[in-house]
Write a structure and sequence with these properties.
Chain A is an alpha+beta fold. Chain A has helices at about 55-65, 160-180, 220-235, 285-290, 295-310, 310-320, 320-335, 340-355, 370-380, 385-395, 400-410, 415-430, 430-440, 445-455, 465-475; strands at about 5-15, 70, 75, 75-80, 90-95, 100-110, 110-125, 130, 140, 150-155, 190-200, 210-215, 245-250, 255-260, 270, 280. Chain A has three domains: about 5-285, no CATH class; about 295-410, no CATH class; about 415-475, Orthogonal Bundle (Arc Repressor Mutant, subunit A), CATH 1.10.10.410. In chain B, strand 1 (about 80) and strand 2 form a beta hairpin. The model of chain B has no long low-confidence stretch (mean pLDDT about 95). The chains are: A alpha+beta (about 475), B mainly alpha (about 90), C alpha/beta (about 500). Strand 9 of chain A pairs antiparallel with strand 2 of chain B.
């Protein structure tokens, strides 16, 4: 009794241009209601759209990054429906001839990679916001968001479970950030996902799909998809039929409910937008856009693995964002002797501390150069690794460089073998029984001696050197 | 052709009284009946056009040109509150 | 003075023989005296008109005259103006005041024109007789029992009756030319894209164009010169439109070497005999002026009205969706819920013809019908456009009657929408093809004006102006006195 799950995702991405898709209003988030509107995005009589060419270029760039075809001629259409947050009573979008088609993203799956097809990316405009919370019998409409440029990215129904869906979304999210085409902040509604989910028995045709909306975090998307899959399977196994409908996910209850009964199915009556001519790019213009593409995450990961010898895991962590990758490379430039040490200290030590204080790498109080200074002192054995962590803690809240902190706290470790030998001999003299025990074969006692030496040196002895000299001197 | 005028009116968000529906229904059918003659025109291989001329898309620069004119723009609004447009509750 | 041309008034202003204030007063007096009989104006603010006139005189004294300095121009209620209401003669906009000027209004202001009131029109420009106006019908000054044409009937009536020397109109399927024809004045619809549509309440986006309605060809050209030109906020406004020497093109007095196409589909049996005779006489006059009349065919003419009555309502059905009672416009009392607010506000606010067109358009675009109606109509549109392109290989301009009939009586065609639609059979194809067209007076049938229509290739308004000014110079139709409102 096995089931196949078929998932397709539609992602609406707000393009991070300064102005809206069809007018010169600002797109800044968080303004007072309706203060970023004009007759055009309010749909007032006689007003006409004028396309934001920067948004068009960013859409082309995104299409190139997913290896898609760029339609040098694409057209705009009107999608007609009535809703208070849709001022014109139609949305300007692209229907039969979108600007981008036939791309893909390769996502990591359990044993390698899987290619997820992307059917199309088209340009359209966002709607405003309706607010109902705590209002009695009325809704409030804010049209600041009306007209903000969107890219709608539609995947093929190529995903087979919630994990693949999340992997795809994370990849896509990272990509649009890398390309600097969107802030993609999900809480601000800049990256919104709808999921189409259906189930079928292997070998059978596609089942009826349900559309899940109102998914605004990766965690909820996973929850919603898993819930929906179970719901559909149970429904069919109980003899029921899946209905094509839109369902809203309630993250608090962890379940979805149908939006049926709101109104009958939409007939969008798409037709060509008479107020806009076709959008044309020359091949030369597309090539120029491609030439400006930054290194993409996949390329960057592979380069970090080969050029810096990093593990796939570390390479992945350090290429999560362009800022992280650039920071790492600045660190390596300042401490070129050991890229792996750089990776280790950045990924495991610095990022952990930044996460605790909720700080972005771009706002790190420690610069690559300052951290490199610390790594130098580890490399030349001035301090132990353990002491270095304390130094880093201090660097997070002061502007001093590593040397100043090491001096101020007296953290220089003792690496002089003569000095260490002296301490070892004292310890050995004070613990003759253990010496005998060690020499008699109890090798575990080494740890005891290490502890004693470190204690006697107040932690300053170079642990590696201690180990080495202990072994030599204990041997007798 | 018999047209479901109430369905079309609903799509258009226009209420029709029974009298209006009784009058507009046949009129709509007549109009559609008239334009049916288009089907007799041979349009094999003919591209439909949405614009009378071939023109280039204007290249608008991405720079903010609009400022806050909320009061002036909301002067004709039926109902607002604290700068928001007020409508009967939208049911999700 | 009232029956003077714009050009004459301009000469007198330039010569210091009169002032903008005096001119404005003349027309304001006439409006006060005669608008009640015509209902050509649905809004008039005499104080504001005089203010503008005073400002114009002051400007002239300080800086000299701009292109239309001090000249009064009436404005169809479809052009958004910050001063006064803009209602498109619809109840759904009965309290609307636009917070912006239409681009052409700005251009007229920059040229120093004095804008006069708002003229009557068919509601949302949907009609051919100005009978669908929510503010009462308008009357033809040549016969008060008859319609002034539509949808720019108020503008045509006002100019014919000299309540204003000129006016702005809009033309989607003939709404400048047909009223000009039945009111005995001159009206020009420019090439689509020549004049900005920004701030003009949209009816059918791929067909609408604004244009002048005036007493003579030259007057029309003066206004066209001022309002034409690229607007970066209208994406269908053409940035590199071939230039026209508007005034220079009006100096022609002969038609030597001009090839005039006479399309057989526009000269059918069953046409009004009087109209036919007037047009034939006009063409004979053209031949006498040196033109060669060439028989041509525009084979898809018969399908034009049907194509138009799919395309225009389709575009309109979407353009009028914004009248949803949310941000402006009429809202019904005590809406029960959102659906009630939408449906009842729009039912109350829109008249019957507007409803018919919205329903027609919604139907033609709806699932299952889109290919058969909308796509088919746009294919036929391609064929119609090609007909003209082919014809213009053989001729320079095309001449036809503007309207198959003269002004009909009020109420005569309101029972059957289809009958009314056929008023536009000779004007509609020109909008579908995006071409320029002009109507000028060419005779009378039983005291009612007949209009001659000129059609040229895209961007060749100069050819129209050449032919029309030569015809006007050789005939006296524009000087025919009207038995209304006295003669100055």
């Amino acid at each position: 009794m096995s089931w196949e799950v078929v998932i397709g995702l539609e992602v609406h991405v707000q393009v991070n241009t300064k102005t809206k898709q069809f007018c010169g209003c600002s797109t800044q988030f968080g303004a007072e209601p309706n203060t970023q509107t004009c007759p055009v995005c309010l749909g007032m009589p006689g007003q006409l759209p004028v396309l934001n060419m920067e948004a068009a270029r960013k859409t082309v760039l995104t299409g190139l990054a997913i290896n898609a075809d760029i339609n040098l001629v694409s057209k705009f259409d009107r999608k007609n429906y009535f809703y208070p947050d849709l001022p014109k009573g139609y949305q300007i979008t692209q229907f039969p001839l979108p600007i981008v088609e036939h791309g893909y993203l390769d996502i990591p799956v359990k044993d390698g990679e899987k290619r997820i097809g992307i059917t199309r990316i088209h340009m359209e405009e966002d709607a405003g916001k309706s607010m109902h919370e705590g209002l009695d019998g009325v809704s409030h409409i804010d049209l600041n968001r009306s007209g903000v440029p969107l890219m709608e990215i539609v995947s093929e129904p190529d995903m087979a479970d919630a994990d693949e869906a999340i992997a795809y979304l994370k990849q896509l999210h990272q990509l649009v950030c890398f390309l600097d085409v969107s802030g993609a902040n999900m809480e601000k509604g800049q990256f919104r996902c709808d999921a189409n989910v259906s189930v079928r028995r292997p070998g059978e045709p596609l089942g009826t799909r349900a559309e899940l909306k109102n998914l605004n975090s990766f965690r909820f998307i996973k929850q919603a998809i898993e819930y929906e899959v179970n719901r559909q399977i149970e429904l069919i196994e109980d003899g029921g039929e899946v209905v094509q409908e839109t369902r809203l996910f309630d993250s608090a209850k962890g379940e979805s409910r149908s939006m049926r009964g709101k109104e009958e199915a939409h007939d969008y009556r798409y037709f060509p937008e008479p107020d806009l001519p076709p959008l044309r790019f020359t091949q030369a213009e597309v090539d120029a856009i491609r030439a400006g593409m930054p290194e993409l995450p996949g390329q960057l990961r592979k380069r970090f693995e080969t050029e810096y010898g990093l593990s796939p895991y570390d390479a992945d962590v350090l290429t999560q964002t362009r800022d992280l990758a650039a920071w790492y490379e600045a660190l390596v430039a300042a401490h070129p002797a050991d890229p792996k040490r750089c990776a280790n200290w950045m990924a495991n030590e610095l990022l952990g501390r930044l996460k605790e204080s909720g700080t972005d790498i771009a706002e790190s109080p420690v610069s690559p150069q300052r951290l490199a200074g610390l790594l130098e002192r580890i490399a030349d054995n001035t301090i132990s690794g353990k002491a270095a962590k304390d130094v880093l803690d201090a660097m997070m809240t002061s502007e001093d460089d590593a040397d100043a902190i090491i001096d101020a706290r007296g953290l220089k470790q003792v690496s002089d073998s003569g000095a260490i030998d002296a301490i070892i001999e004292e310890v050995m003299a004070a613990n003759p029984a253990q010496v005998e025990g060690y020499r008699g074969g109890k090798e575990k006692l080494l740890g005891f001696f290490v502890g004693q030496v470190m204690k006697a040196s107040r932690g300053k002895a170079n642990p590696g050197m201690v180990n080495q000299r202990l072994k030599a001197l204990l041997k007798g | 052709m018999d047209i479901d005028v109430r369905k079309v009116a609903m799509l258009s968000r226009i209420r029709l009284t029974d009298d209006e529906a009784a009058e507009l229904g046949p009129q709509l059918s007549n109009i559609i009946g008239y334009v049916e003659q288009l089907s007799a025109v041979n349009t094999d291989g003919v591209e439909p056009i949405a614009h009378p001329h071939d023109i280039a898309m204007p290249q608008r620069v991405d720079a903010v040109t609009n400022s806050n004119r909320r009061d002036a723009l909301q002067a004709s609004a039926p109902k607002t509150e604290s700068g928001l447009y007020v409508v009967p509750k939208v049911i999700e | 003075m009232p029956f003077s041309t714009l050009s004459d008034i301009q000469s007198r202003l330039d010569a210091g023989q009169t002032t903008a204030v005096a001119v404005a007063k003349t027309y304001l007096d006439r409006i006060a005296a005669f608008n009640g009989d015509l209902n050509a104006f649905v809004d008039i603010d005499p104080a504001h008109v005089l203010e503008q006139a005073e400002a114009s005189d002051a400007y002239r004294a300080k800086h000299g005259a701009r292109a239309l300095e001090g000249l009064p121009i009436a404005v169809k209620d479809i052009f958004c103006t910050q001063d006064g209401p803009t209602r498109c003669c619809s109840n759904i906009l009965k309290d609307f005041h636009a917070p912006y000027d239409a681009h052409v209004i700005t251009r007229l202001k920059e040229a120093g024109a004095v804008l006069v009131g708002k003229t009557n029109m068919d509601e949302f420009a949907m009609g051919s007789s100005t009978e669908t106006s929510a503010f009462g019908p308008c009357r033809n000054p040549w016969d008060l029992e008859r319609i002034p044409g539509g949808s720019s009937g108020g503008s045509a009536s006002a100019v014919a009756a000299a309540l204003a020397p000129a006016a702005l109109g809009t033309d989607t399927g003939g709404s400048i030319r047909q009223p000009a024809s039945v009111c005995g004045i001159t009206g020009l619809k420019p090439t689509y894209g020549r004049v900005s549509r920004r701030g003009i309440i949209a009816f059918a986006s791929s067909l609408d164009q604004a244009g002048p309605m005036a007493r003579t060809v030259k007057d029309a050209a003066m206004i066209a010169a001022a309002i034409s030109g690229h607007d970066s906020m209208d994406s269908t406004s053409v940035p590199d439109a071939p230039a026209v020497d508007w005034l220079g093109a009006c100096d022609k007095t002969d038609m030597k070497g001009l090839r005039i196409g006479k399309p057989k589909e526009y000269f059918v049996d069953g046409m009004d005999a009087g109209v036919r005779a007037a047009i034939d006489a006009a063409l004979a006059e053209c031949a006498a002026l040196g033109a060669e009349i060439v028989d041509i065919s525009l084979p898809h003419t018969d399908a034009a009205v049907a194509a138009y009555y799919v395309i225009a309502p389709s575009e309109a059905s979407a353009n009028l969706s914004r009248y949803d009672a949310v941000r402006f416009g009429h809202r019904c009392e005590n809406p029960e819920d959102l659906l009630d607010m939408y449906t009842r506000s729009r039912d109350e606010g829109f008249g019957a013809e507007v409803k018919r067109r919205i329903l027609t358009g919604t139907f033609a675009l709806s699932s299952g019908y889109y290919d058969a109606y909308y796509i088919k109509a746009q294919q036929v549109r391609t064929l119609i456009r090609q007909d003209f392109i082919d014809a213009f290989e053989q001729v320079d301009v095309i001449a036809t009657p503007t309207s198959p009939i003269t002004a009909f009586k009020l109420g005569e065609k309101t029972d059957d929408p289809l009958t009314m639609y056929l008023s536009d059979i000779f004007t509609i194809a020109i909008n579908l093809a995006g071409l320029p067209g002009m109507s000028q007076p060419c005779g009378f049938v039983e005291g009612l004006p007949v209009g001659l229509q000129w059609i040229a290739p895209a961007w060749r308004e100069d050819l129209i102006l050449n032919a029309a000014s030569a015809y006007e110079a050789a005939t006296d139709w524009v000087k025919t006195p009207i038995n209304f409102g006295g003669e100055a």
